[in-house]
Amino acid sequence: MEKFECWMVQYHGYDLEHHEPSLRPGEKCVITQFHDESCFHANEFKKSAWLKEGTTVLQKKSCGHLIHVSDSINEEDGRLIQHNDQGQTIQDAWKIIYPGAAGDAWWDTAQLLTQVANAIDIFNVTHPECEALFIFDQSSTHALLGPNALHPFKMNKGNGGKQCKQSDTVILDYNPDISLCGKVQKMTTDSGAARGLQTVLEENGMCQYDIFLLSKPLTHPPQYWGYSKYHYCEAFKVTFADAKATAMDSLESCPLDTIHHFINHAGHFMSAYCQGLTGRAAEWAVKKQHSHRCILRCAMLAIESILNT
Questions:
Q1: Count of domains in the chain?
Q2: Closest CA to 225 of 268, 266, 265, 262
Q3: Are the CB atoms for 52 and 29 separated by under 8 Å?
Q4: DSSP string across 232-289
Q5: Confidence of residue 211 (pLDDT cuts 50, 70, 90)
Q6: H-type helices in 89-206, by residue range?
Q7: From CA 73, how far away is CA 252, in angstroms rounded?
Q8: Of 198, 196, 200, 201, nearest to 160 (Cα)?
């Protein structure tokens, strides 16, 4: 992400001061598209209310029908939308479905790919002089492999057992162990049994790893969903049609300046993680430097002085 920031428009400080990138000939401005998904329920309301003594609110036992939203957010537009000259919406990048027993099919990779293709078309029309950088979270839907791809979840840890036998492959040229690059890797043992995942990874030199815990998400959509969910729960809804309309209104209620602040907040944590901070230390640094786009060196020095005392 850091290498793309030199081509991005940035908004600094409390007043969100606008900073254009310094582009060289042939370079284009990069606009980041943060993709995420969230759900609303028809019977979802706020958790607290002022009541007279001895009274209570009778709420429905079920959460109600589901409203699933998949959308992309960016700093330039907020939500990715194509408007005409009168300001009316021509195309919208979001995809809203109502899955359930008698509703739409559940969200899957095929629907996501269709949505992303549509979002790219909208971006090319609305920002013809820019390039899009799409960012997705680590969802099982986003990580789905093709039907004929090598799949680690279909392999045992050890050799043999009930697992499918896969075709031999070639170790990639960017393998950590240079001596193995380009060599054929057998996917069966000498006895003909399927090889396990551990053996395959060891031969690829990929058994060295570090555990890196991130205390906060690196993108801002969760904050955007939270803002929309708050307004959705505050609204009075009687029918499912009311819930649908309220969900759309809530998604469009988040101001662009607020989205800028959300993106900057995510940028603070990215900067802290890149400088080696994790957990509470990262949270402290972000709180200390919340008016900046990134964590400054002075915050790092303050942490080091605390740790050394």
A1: 2
A2: 262
A3: no
A4: HHHS---SHHHHHHHHHHHHT-S-HHHHHHHHHHHHHHHHHHHTT--HHHHHHHHHHT
A5: very low
A6: 109-126, 197-203
A7: 11
A8: 196
Q: What is the pLDDT of residues 80-125, one digit of tens each?
A: 999 888 888 899 999 999 998 888 999 988 899 999 999 999 999 9
Does residue 277 share a domain with residue 174? no
Closest CA to 180 of 164, 201, 160, 159: 201
pLDDT band of residue 159 (cuts 50, 70, 90) is confident
Q: Which token pair is 165?
A: 């036998």
3-state SS, residue 122:
helix
DSSP 184-206: EE-SB-TTSPBPPHHHHHHHTT-
What's the CA angle centered on 196, arms 190 and 202, to 5 degrees?
95
In this structure, the answer to whether residues 131 and 80 fall within a common structural domain is yes
How many whole angstroms separate alpha carbon 105 and alpha carbon 144? 18
Tokens of 233: 């729960």
- In this prediction the pTM is 0.70
Residues 212 and 186 in one domain: yes
Q: What is the mean pLDDT of residues 23-31?
A: 92
